[in-house]
Structures are given as structure tokens and as C-alpha cells.
Amino acid sequence: MLLLLLPSVVIILLVIGFPMLYSLYISFTNFNLTSPKVIEFIGFENYITLLFEDSQFWKAFGRTVLFITLAVNIELILGLVIAQMMARLVRGKGLARTLMMMPMMFAPILVGFQFKWFFDAQLGLVNNLLYTITGEPQLIPWLIKVPFGFISILIAEIWMSTPFMVIILEAGILSLPTEPFEAAEVDGASGWQKFRLLTLPMIMPFIYTALAIRSLDLARAYDVVSIMTGGGPANRTELIWTYVNRLAFSGKEFALGSAMSFIAVILSLVFTYMFFNNVLKSRWTEEVEL
């Protein structure tokens, strides 16, 4: 059995392991793309520069945390509402699910180009719609003005990924037993009371799973941001991975970019551990109270 797995293991090591180890080695050198033949080992200097001297790194990191927080919470709220509506559908459920899942079928790059056109100041759908409603020309520079740029990429990400939340949460709602809801109906509980006291507590494992997956996915957001704003205006929409790309390739500082990648991964792992630790604690507390 182990021999059968050997080809796959070798391929994984070559495709993933070797580049990762080489990138780790590069992060401890002064390697840059303008003079690739001159490589000197400089220890943790790149890491020290990023953590203690580069304020832009922490701005990008803080903006990434804000982006994750807003996107995940809005997606969760929309997902709960749509999942409840989908679960109650009697007719046309298959068609509704197909239409709801369509945003997930688009590649992030295509979504970026699509919303870049939507929010274009002169030809965009949003400004033309506002013109139709108000009767006055609207030339709002959505992609090049603060805070509209950040709002634009947030809307694009939410549109693209909310269906994922709906799928997970609807699966949780449909798996719930009917007896508690029938008993609550007999006791005269309102729809809100049934949702707050029965549905929400029982689908918490599904919510935790969806939040964890989406948080990790958003932590590596790059495509939509790069296409729509490129991190602008004035780096005000720059997230951690767009900054890595700009530093490593546009700025030719490949060693700094490699170091930043590993710092971002470590910080993501730390926050993931904290998240799951809090999840386990909260679930244990709920079980004790019950």
C-alpha cells in the first residue's frame, strides 16, 4: 500500500514541498529580481524589517482582518436569511438553488472584471442605475476614491461567496428534527422565537464550519482585489496578498515577499487556532448548560 502511494507523495513533494522550502530559504537572503545571481544569507533581517519597520505591512494586515470580519458577518446574515427562505420553498426549489449557486460558477478573475465594469465611473451599471433613479448624472468614482474602493471589493466578494454560506446553512436547517418545532408550535411560539431558540442553536456546528472555511478563504483573497483596484487608491484597498505580489514582483524584492508570505501564513494559523479554540470552548459551555 505504501508503495502505491509513493508516486503521489513524490509528486506532492516536488510540486509543493520543494517550492515551499526554496521560498523559505529565499526569505532568509537578500535575493531580488534585479540581481538574481547575488544571494547572501542575512538571517531574520527581512522578518525584522517587515514586523518592526514596514508600517504598510501592518496596514495591509489590519485591512485584511477588517475585510474578513465584514465579509464573513454579512455573508452569514444573508446566508441565514436565504437558507431559511430556500428551506421553506415548496415549488421551484431546484431552479432556485441553481440560480442561487450561479455566482459560485464564475472564476474570481471574471468576477473582478464583472464588478470592475459595474462600478466604472463613466460606463458602469451602478452609476447608470443611479442616473435612471435620480435623473441626474452620477459620476461616483467607486474604484478610485476612499472608502468606495473598499466597499466595491467587499460587495464583489460577498456576491461571489454568499451562495456557499447558503448551501452549508440550508443543509443544517434541513437536517433538523421536526419534533421540537411542532412542540413549539403547540406552545404558541412565534417564528422569530423558533428561529432564535431552536434553529440557531441547533445549526451552530454548521455555522462554525462555514465561518472557518470562509475566513481561511478570505485570508488569501487576491484575484478580485487585484483586478478591481490593484490595491489602490493609494494602497487603501491593499490586502496582505496583493501587498506580497506588489513587493515581490513589482518591487523586485522577492526575499521580502517570501518572508511576508510566511508571516501571513503563520498569522493565519494563529488566528485559525484561536477561532477553533473559542468554538470548542463555546460548544463545551453549551453542552454543560444543557
Helix-strand layout with pairing:
Elements: H1 2-26, H2 45-53, H3 55-88, H4 93-105, H5 108-118, H6 125-134, H7 148-174, H8 179-186, H9 191-202, H10 204-219, H11 223-228, H12 240-250, H13 254-289
Structure description:
This protein has one domain: MetI-like (MetI-like fold). It contains 13 helices and no strands. The protein has helices at residues 2-26, 45-53, 55-88, 93-105, 108-118, 125-134, 148-174, 179-186, 191-202, 204-219, 223-228, 240-250, 254-289.
Could you list some keywords that capture this structure?
mainly alpha, MetI-like fold, 13 helices
What CATH architecture would you give?
Orthogonal Bundle
Q: Give the SSE order as H and E letters.
A: HHHHHHHHHHHHH
Question: Taking all residues together, what is the mean pLDDT?
Answer: 85
At the third CATH level, what is the topology name? MetI-like fold
The biggest beta sheet reads:
none
Radius of gyration equals 23 Å
CATH level 1 name: Mainly Alpha
Number of distinct beta strands = 0
CATH-level-4 superfamily name: MetI-like
Number of helices: 13
**Which spans have pLDDT < 50 for at least 5 consecutive residues?**
none
Number of separate structural domains? 1
Shape: globular
